[in-house]
Structure formats: structure tokens, C-alpha cells
Amino acid sequence: MDQRIMTASFSAEAALTADLVPVDVDAILFWMVWDAEKACLEVENYPKAVLRSAQTAMRDVIGQLNLADISLRRKQIDRDLEDILGKKCEQWGVTVMSVEIRDIMIPKELQDALSKEAQAERERNARIILAEVEKDISEMFVEAAEVYDRNPRAMKLRAMNLAYEGAKDSKGVLLAPSALADGFNVGQVGGGE
Predict the structure, then answer these.
(1) Predicted TM-score (pTM) above 0.90
(2) In what order do the strands lie in the sheet with 6-16?
(3) Which residue of 62, 154, 171, 174 has the lowest C-beta tally within 10 Å?
């Protein structure tokens, strides 16, 4: 009897998740016979029994998870399957070394729906962030207005700064109405110096 480490691929087709989504899952099982006598006497066809147990365990584990959890918890599913199969196969003289999920396939229609849902969620989050930023900016403008209201010179300095910023990069000419030009006279506040 071959007691080297064996590999076998297995799948659970149309396994239902906890939220009733059918998924096809492909995995690889690494196992070995450690007790040849038990493997021959305790079960009729130990390789087939190991694979069928793996498929059943896969269906059970997938059935306990929602679709969203499956892709996030792949490594945990591998470990859970390894534990379940290890306990089951040990009585047959077989050790399960590891289980590795290779692929999780969901129906094409559902892939499209999930893609649209994810895109809508990203759009929603972007809009929420934009609204929060606009709220913060409006609060800053209110604070600035209060400062300008308390100090007319601050408003004149701001007007000068805006005119400078507008003219510096465009290398153009700033045409300003005479009232704005009067505002640049920072030394005169409220009518005359």
C-alpha cells in the first residue's frame, strides 16, 4: 500500500450558502495513509471514502456561511475542512495533511448583480465623503466670515490675496473696479487717513 502523501482534487457543485446562493467550489486535498491495516479493514474503498467525505464536509462548511464571508474566510474554511476531515479519516488510518480551496465560482448573473452592488456602494461612500468635506468647508467659511466681520482689514487683505493669486500664474492683467482698488488701501479703515 502506498503510504506517500497523496493529492486529490474534489469539488462541491451547486453547494448552497447560508443565504441560499449556489456556488461551485474546487479544492485540493493532501492526505496519506498512516495505518495500512485500518485503511484496508475499516472502510471498503478508502480513497473514494476520503473524497466523498471531503465533498460532504465542503458542502457543510459552505452551508454555514453567507456568500460574502466565503471569499473573505478562505483560509479559515481550509482549516475547518482539515479539522473535520482529519477527525473523520483518522479512524480509517488516514491523515489529512491540508485542504486548499482553488476556486469559488458563483453564477454569472449573480456576479453581475454583485458587481453593480459593489459599484453602487462605492458611489454611495464617495458621496458621503464629499458631503462631509463640503460641510467642513462651509463651517470654515462661516468662521472666516466671522473673522472678516470683526476686522475689516482682514477682509481687505483677503481681497488683495485673491487678486494676487488670480493674476500671478496667468501672467495677465488684473482689471479691477475702482472700489476694489480702494480696498487695497489697508491703512485706511472706515473712511480716512
Answers:
(1) no
(2) 6-16, 22-33, 94-105
(3) 171
pLDDT band at 29 (very low <50, low <70, confident <90, very high): very high
**Strand intervals (E) in 76-189:** 94-105
Residue 181 neighbours by CB distance under 10 Å: 11
125/135 Cα distance (integer angstroms):
15
Q: Do residues 134 and 124 touch, judged by C-beta distance below 8 A? A: no
Could you give the CA distance from residue 178 to residue 146 in angstroms, rounded to a whole number? 26
User: How many Å is the Cα radius of gyration of the chain?
Assistant: 35
The span from the CA of 164 to the CA of 187, in Å, is: 18
The reported pLDDT for the residue numbered 188 is 54
pLDDT tens per residue across span 150-185: 888 888 888 778 777 777 776 666 666 666 566 566
